[in-house]
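Hello again,

I reread your note about wanting to compare the complex against the isolated chains. To keep things tidy I'm splitting this into two emails, and this first one only covers the full assembly. Below are the input lines as submitted, including protein chains and any nucleic acid or small-molecule components. They are followed by the predicted structure of everything together. The single-chain runs will come separately.
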Amino acid sequence: MFKNYLQIAMRNLLKHKLYSAINIIGLAVGLAACLLLFMFIHDETQFDQFWTDADRIYRIESVIQSPGREAYSDGGVSGKARETMLNYFAQDIESATRFSQQWPIIHVGDKVFEEPIFLTDADTADMFDIEVLKGDLKQTLNDNLSIALSKELAIKYYGSIDVLGKVLSIAQFDNKYDYRVGAVYKKLPHNTVLSFNALIKINEDDFKNQPWMFSRWVSANTRTYFKLKANADIATINERLVSFVEGNVPVPDFWSEQYAKATEFFSLKTLAITEMHLEQPSVKSNITLFGAIAVLILVIACINFTNLSIAKSTRRAREVAMRKVVGASRKQLIVQFLGETIVIALIALCVGVAFVELALPAYNDFLGRDLQIGYGDPITIMIMLALVFFAGVIGGIYPALILSSFRPAAILSANKTITSSAGFSFSNLLVIFQFIVSISLIICAVVIYAQRDHVANKELGYDKDHIVILHGVGRETLVPRQQTIREQIKKLPSIKSATYISMFPATGANRTATMTVAEDKTLTKHTISFKEIDSDYQATFSAKLLAGRLFSKEVGRDHMPTDEQWDNEPGPFESNIIINELAVKQLGLGDKPADALGKVIELAYGKPFHATIVGVFSNINYRTTREIQLPEAYFLDDDAAGFMAVRFSGSPIAAEKILKDYWQENITDVPFVRTFVDQLIQDQFMGEQRMSFMLAVASSLAVFVACLGLFGLASFTAERRTKEIGLRKVMGANVKDIVKLLVWQFSKPVFIASIIASLLSYVLMAKWLEDFPYRIDTTLIVPICLVASFLAILLAWLTIGGNAVKVARAKPINALRSE
Amino acid sequence: MIKLNNLSRTYRTAEVETAALSGVNIEIDQGEFVAIMGPSGCGKSTLLNILGMLDNPSEGQYLFADEDISNYSEAKLADIRKRNIGFIFQSFNLIDELSVEENIELALLYHGIPATERKERVVKVMDKVGIAHRAKHMPSQLSGGQQQRVAIARAVVGDQAVILADEPTGNLDSVHGQEVMEMLRALNADGTTIIMVTHSAAHADYARRTINLFDGGVVTENVRAA
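Full-complex prediction:
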């Protein structure tokens, strides 16, 4: 019996090649999209699973609440945690290691590089299975003066991986050592949260002058991982973390006023390495988004399947009737037709896999990964079969129910044809659903793109297209020359101004302090961002002076206390500050900027600090346009910071050349590294750009599959109406009349879909936009909806129109004769 | 074998009610050859559908082999039908995607008969109707007469006790029509009960008894002398 089912299934497929092709290709596209997205989602969930002891490796993280700020954790913990935990949890922890990323200057022969390298402990070699290509990693990490290089870095420095014994020189902080290459290792795969291109053993004695590196509990500067003993349970450690903090973490002096004990501001948590990647909000949202898109495209493809099968059901009516006459039960017929759809789905899967293989290179390029179809992976096989079953059953169940319901008596009389009006009403509903999804995807893609564009190009208050940040200016060897360097750079052609900065613009970095207005009897506390600037800040970032004056080097009170003064003197400290317009409002200092001049602000920063307002700047969005602009206060600190922002005129390429030539001529011990601010901003929106691109591709696929289905359905319907069309032409209808008749039949569902899709998308996108402090006007969504709807209708007409014209031109006598 | 007692069939829609059959009383013995005649719309096809268990009566009783099947479900009717009744239609109703032998085999597919036995019976019946030489051909490659022979073969391959023929010669020329009638006669001679709807008085003469229908009811019954 199944041989008979298979035979008739294959013969039906071959007999109606066009519709079989539409069915198979439509479903293949849906399955291919699903597979590609599944491969990405599968990859996301497999991060760090490949380590031999993955189930025993955890990261310890601290959550710290600075006075006046929200509790914060970025996954780091103090460098002190490792040793303390190894002692405290000796029964449970087998080993632990730290990773501390640094950006030292590296001298390789006469070349100079600035490279991120990682300081780590020797346990790294035991805890993680790093494939060593040359040398001995464990031995290297046990030696203070050895370095392990990744293969890529070895080739970058030396052109080869045969580099054991080579010496390079690393300068960081006040140390400069020669390191011998002791090992070369293979780059870690992409599916790990770890990433290091060079490893050096941590020697805490080298950082006595940098207590924040490994000495302070409140400096969460390292990533610390530990491995449980074979029979240990992480729950045991989690239960004892509070007592661990109580027993080991002191309250720092500068917070002694605010906190009595460490547990008031400090807590620890553990996270399994296998869960770390998925904990990131962007990863979770990507998985949700990609998963939803995959399901939607597959559903659209299955709808095609269903619609074409319903349309074809008239052709199978006689066969169904005869099978019932000779004794087939309804159940047997349902099994037969479901089996047919599963066979078609299987063929579509093979075609879909071919599509995936063709798309993989571009897909991997887009994702920055190396995904492959795991033909031997049981989970991949299971997912493929599940997709086939899902598509076959979901796509085929309704047509199977319709077909198996045909009553033989109604069909087998001469010249009777059968139509299932319920079936065709359902088909229309499905077409409407397909186009609702397609049009909605188009609208969402355009809105997300428009929002990204708006935010990425938003006016920041300074000329972001003509500012470049120079790295390395805070290096120890350059500190004595910093004022000279700045003055020399300011004199270069095309250079307008240069200022030292401690934080990059257009990032989320922000420092805040609690401030009160001295004359405010209520002593209301305000959290105000602050930064140290030098006397060239205003010229570089084009801040407008709205009231008062700029800082002056000659005015002693304009300078904020030095670090030495702050550390050694009890206070109170006094200096002048400049604030921005938002701070004037936030602090309630008056209606006009000038009202703030002369007012005194008290800072709560451990020691008494009075600051007098001498000037008011216009608002500059120094952070990102993802966050609301903040009230800010500025202190003068002409002692340089880590970076220099340079404002230039003319072309960025020309400016870069000028700066690079100057640098290479005057500074030989620090490499020239620069970042253009506009590029930095664009890079930050890569996530949204990627999402917008994905949605654009998804909506294109959805529209393609929907139109494919529409074409098939329209062709079938035209065929079914052959006699009617013939009669209409005999009665006097011309080609235009017939085309209008056929095209209008399928325009109606698309019109209805465009209205529903526009309403749904407007509500959805308006809600999504609410999360952005700076956003496009929601009324802009309306024309986007109109354009997307128009596009969908146009595509539908183009899809149906050609075939409608062909049918309309056929001779009526042929149509009538066929009856 | 077949008994209809006061049988009626009414079709109802929202707007109209049509009495296709009304108060029909018929008895057909095993081995009989009965023709049913009447003008278009008199209820012949409806009667045949009910006799063939493709439809249920609205009122009355249908006894098949002394079993009242009037209110049986579709599944139960299908079971009785496949064991007892073969069908021959005016428009042949062969499945275009199956070959001649596959079309005939279809009638045995739902009987649980093993494949080898099915093949044997198909070959035997193809020989009987003289279509074995076209076994692998598709219906579109056959003439009308040949297609109807395939349909006859399909109707008898299961050794059904009853053959219902709905205008079996309607789409055939006189020569092929004659051939079909001779085959039916031969089947009847072997003991198969034949109930045939026809417009042709000449073909009705092959039957021993003719039932004339008019407006959904039996008006006359003529028994031909042996």
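For quick reference: Confidence is low (pLDDT under 50) at residues 414-418 of chain A.

B.
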